[in-house]
Amino acid sequence: MTSEQAYYGKGYDKSVSSTHAWRTVKNSAEFVIPVLKPNFKVLDVGSGPGTITFDFAKNYLTEGGKIIGVEPTQELIDEANEYKAKNGSPSNLHFQIGSIYELPFEDDSFDLIYCHQVVIHLQDPILALKELKRVCKPNGYVCVKDADLISSIVYPEKYQPLADFYAIKADASISTDSKAGRKLYERCIEAGYDITKLQYSMSHWLCYEIEYKLKWADATINRIKNSKENPYPNDPLKNQQTKEEAIELWNQWKDDKSSFFNLNHFEIIYKK
């Protein structure tokens, strides 16, 4: 049986969700803007801590539009609702429990489906992509974005093991595909998406400004220290050594004036 939430298979982890809480429409969903209208009914599948969902509701769905964020984990729904409450509780925003494998909505319910860094973590991505298409209205849009972890760059070269750490940790888990980004287009075709209605693009997160380097490194270090994620789960000694080395390198990286981090993403927009 496919796990509802393999990414949090060891339980909800605040140190993981906190590394997602900096995300906004501008840095994570800009590819959606050309097809988004302010009166759309939108579904955010895998809304996490809710920051992107909130941004859509407050700043983009301003003419009668509304958005629902779904997660299969109650703690994430609670975290998103807390963020909503602290920021004015827009009436066009709602969070609820829901599985990407069996969304609790009728066929043809939404003008736009947004799914960010979710398919990358799924045991059955094809089933999930079919379900996204099911709840999308005719002439509506399915918008999906996945990272390609294995192609990350951390520079100067002496910090490249930090990129390798991402890929090794992903490959050691059952919940993350380090090559998911490059596979996204192919997976959509396998899920029955009409190739003539698919738009394919790439974007990236480039972290080089001092303020953002400090935030990125500190959040990542906290996650390494406190999450249940392990690069070598079957070798405790190597696992601990690798984590300690990564923490030391992140501390050096954030203080290095010439350093940067680049993470590539692949995106699709499908018009149903």
From TrEMBL:
Coiled coil: none annotated. One of its GO terms (molecular function) is methyltransferase activity. Pfam families: Methyltransf_31 (PF13847). InterPro entries: Methyltranfer_dom (IPR025714), SAM-dependent_MTases_sf (IPR029063). This is Methyltransferase domain-containing protein. Residues 37-150 form the Methyltransferase domain. Transmembrane segments: none annotated. It comes from Candida verbasci.
